[in-house]
Amino acid sequence: MSNPKRLWLPNSLLQIAVQTLLRRPWQSVLILLGVALGVAVMVSIDLANASASRAFELSTEVITGKATHQIIPSGIGIRDDVYAQLRRSGTLNLAAPIVSTYVSIPTIKGQAFQLLGIDPFVDRLFRDYWMPDSFSGQAFFELLTRPGTVMVSTTLAERSGLKVGDELVIEAAGRQQSVRIAGVLQPSDRLAARSLEGVLIADIATAQEISGKVGYLDRIDLILPSQNLAVIEKIQSRLPPDLRLETVQARQGSVRQMTEAFQLNLSALSLLALVVGLFLIYNTMTFSVVQRRDLFGAMRCLGVTRRELFFLVSGEAFIIGLIGSGLGILLGVLLGRNTVGMVSQTINDLYFTTTVQTVGIPVESLIKGGIVGVLATLGAAIPPALEAASIEPRLALSRSGLERKAESVIWLLAAGGLLLSITGYLVFQVPGNHLVFGFGGTLLVVVGLAMFSPLLMKLLLTVLRPALEKTFGFLGNMAPGNLLNSISRTAVAVSALMVAVAVTIGVSLMIDSFRFTVTQWLEQTLQSDIYISVPGFNANSSFLPIDPLVVEQLKMRDDIERLDTLRATRAISQVGEINLSATFNPQIGAERIFKEAVGSADQITLAMQEGKVIISEPLANRARLKVGDRIEFQTPKGSRPFQIAGIYYDYASSEGSVLMWQDVYRQYWEDDAITAIGLRLKYGINPDEAAAQIRAGLQTNQNLLVRANATLREDVMEVFDRTFAITSALRILATLVAVIGILSTLSLLQIEKQRETGILKALGVTGKELWRLVMLETGLMGLIAGLLAAPTGFVLAIILIEVINLRSFGWTILLSINPMAFFLAIFIALGAALTAGILPAIKMNRLSAAEAIRYE
């Protein structure tokens, strides 16, 4: 019967594990750094995603309060008289009308504030900021009786030095207005303070005047018994056709879904650095086992069991994982300061605006990073641990045993890699747009291609060896020979660098292709010379109406050949609330690139004038719609189906949008407002000069964005570059981890070859020749990694474009191959490897022949 004390690890073996790590400090530091960087990248991205999600939750919790349901409009809003009629009829009992808009404060740059218009008499039943200690009775009275008054958060008051009675200048719907501070909200705790920091409270009438929504509400909040379906169905049945009752959870969930794909993509990419770090862990632990084969053999002769040797190596890995993960968490928090801002900015640019600026550090992200780091380290150490446990005492002194074993499994690895790659391809064929299958298939393909590295490395070195010998003499023969003799370790380092560089190529090709596609799309879509709109806070907030007098003034100018108008809003359809735009552009059929359509450009325009619509590709993919299908909208005149005449490529929103003719829109929604204007200038007129003249000449109190075509394109591409800035940072960090892997491998190889180095020095090999030898070895590793990364990166780019992006955002991206991406990647791999070889070369050069020969 086995001794229960030996099921884990005796103290003596535990001491050996600790002493091994301390005896090789340089090796331990490198592997700790590899683990720490991998964990740090993952933690920083998780912090960014969690912080963005928490900011959204805090921003919405204070707005929704205790509401369980909301009545939302299909179009511009809920008319005041409709709300009053619903109240008089007894349809709505516990109901709070809401006007909501985003405003900016000119003295505070870079932050959006939400102006919330409420009915103070009923709103206190919905939201906690109406607690007795939150503000004075005088503030409540002034908010009700004095127009143009607002209440602000304590955070804003302290930040701007505001007190009750002060005037505050805000900008809403393009107009600067002055409001009076009626009171300062006193939150009950720190969490409430964070939720309220970007909120201004006003009376309904004041909010309507400030936002330009006089006569309209944005929504009606309700508190309903969730189990009483009869009450819910009764309210829905009494609502006008353009209003819909939704649960708060469903409405917030639809907003969250917009960012899920973006955040999941970042999380998957952040794991790359950890995956590359796993190669480093595996490689270092394998070296550790190889270096101690004689020790392990002796221990086996003395009665140490296979189980104890397995736990010895696993224990070393556990210690490394624990310390490395701890360092990674600290580094991840530091990195998170930048990634949180980058992710939040992208979400604000593309999806929705949050008013909460600080959310603290989510502890869950730190715990998750630590657990994943330790488990990943242990997982990567299992093969070396099994190798240590399998050592036979009689083979302990044979260091070539592992290499012979590696030689025998190279072809098996390649066969396994082929099988994994084919499995990954089959996973892509699973029906549906499940991103988990997309990322799972991608991982299988990348790992499968990495498993080809040992075989391809052996073949390349064998082919290059004669040419290198002719060029560099005996050193040219030794360098590839050394790599081949240590292929069980060198191949892993090359694989790690290859994966990192392949991702660099793949992501670069994807971004370049996306940029090329967006550029082509802009050239086709932006045909006007000048564009006019109201400043918004993100790509999906361009629903603010332009002063109607602006259109009349523009029609009087003699330098304008054509004026096109656009109305953008949100409407309720059978696929949910979506973006709806209405245009008067007679060339709309020619100014869109169609994936599928009923006919020519003129036929598309004619179809729209007859009442049909065109939809964007992301919406068609998400809702599984095609040309000839119908999309049904809730309008003030009832439910109305519109036949789809075309599906056009669009990269403005991954949510998707519908475009219809403006007369048709006005017929059903009775809304004459416009949100954007496109101007075609007469021949020979400079757009920049004309834009400046229009900007200066417009007689309106509304601040408008008047941009020439080229300026608008630059603004769009600036947002594009900002979106992919974090992706570039992740690529750099993954490559850095791979460089550490190369450095670790070379350092360990030099330790193993100390006796050989001493003999070479004793035979007259100079320091310069040793330098050349190390640089040849590192250069070959980098070159091979770069050459193998080129096809792998190309395959990865195809997957990112055809699978991941299409499933994530519904976009078709045109593949654009820039040869420089491949040359740059090979240069990075070669440069990284050569840089990593400098330190081992210095150490070898400083070692005397006598010291080196005495090593064994």
Automatic annotation (TrEMBL):
<feature type="transmembrane region" description="Helical">
    <location>
        <begin position="29"/>
        <end position="48"/>
    </location>
</feature>
<feature type="domain" description="ABC3 transporter permease C-terminal">
    <location>
        <begin position="732"/>
        <end position="848"/>
    </location>
</feature>
<dbReference type="GO" id="GO:0005886">
    <property type="term" value="C:plasma membrane"/>
</dbReference>
<dbReference type="Pfam" id="PF02687">
    <property type="entry name" value="FtsX"/>
</dbReference>
<keyword id="KW-0812">Transmembrane</keyword>
<keyword id="KW-1003">Cell membrane</keyword>
<feature type="transmembrane region" description="Helical">
    <location>
        <begin position="821"/>
        <end position="842"/>
    </location>
</feature>
<keyword id="KW-0472">Membrane</keyword>
<feature type="transmembrane region" description="Helical">
    <location>
        <begin position="434"/>
        <end position="456"/>
    </location>
</feature>
<protein>
    <recommendedName>
        <fullName>ABC transporter permease</fullName>
    </recommendedName>
</protein>
<dbReference type="InterPro" id="IPR003838">
    <property type="entry name" value="ABC3_permease_C"/>
</dbReference>
<keyword id="KW-1133">Transmembrane helix</keyword>
<feature type="transmembrane region" description="Helical">
    <location>
        <begin position="309"/>
        <end position="335"/>
    </location>
</feature>
<feature type="transmembrane region" description="Helical">
    <location>
        <begin position="770"/>
        <end position="801"/>
    </location>
</feature>
<feature type="transmembrane region" description="Helical">
    <location>
        <begin position="729"/>
        <end position="749"/>
    </location>
</feature>
<feature type="transmembrane region" description="Helical">
    <location>
        <begin position="491"/>
        <end position="511"/>
    </location>
</feature>
<feature type="transmembrane region" description="Helical">
    <location>
        <begin position="266"/>
        <end position="289"/>
    </location>
</feature>
<feature type="domain" description="MacB-like periplasmic core">
    <location>
        <begin position="490"/>
        <end position="696"/>
    </location>
</feature>
<feature type="domain" description="ABC3 transporter permease C-terminal">
    <location>
        <begin position="268"/>
        <end position="393"/>
    </location>
</feature>
<dbReference type="InterPro" id="IPR038766">
    <property type="entry name" value="Membrane_comp_ABC_pdt"/>
</dbReference>
<dbReference type="InterPro" id="IPR025857">
    <property type="entry name" value="MacB_PCD"/>
</dbReference>
<feature type="domain" description="MacB-like periplasmic core">
    <location>
        <begin position="28"/>
        <end position="211"/>
    </location>
</feature>
<feature type="transmembrane region" description="Helical">
    <location>
        <begin position="409"/>
        <end position="428"/>
    </location>
</feature>
<dbReference type="Pfam" id="PF12704">
    <property type="entry name" value="MacB_PCD"/>
</dbReference>
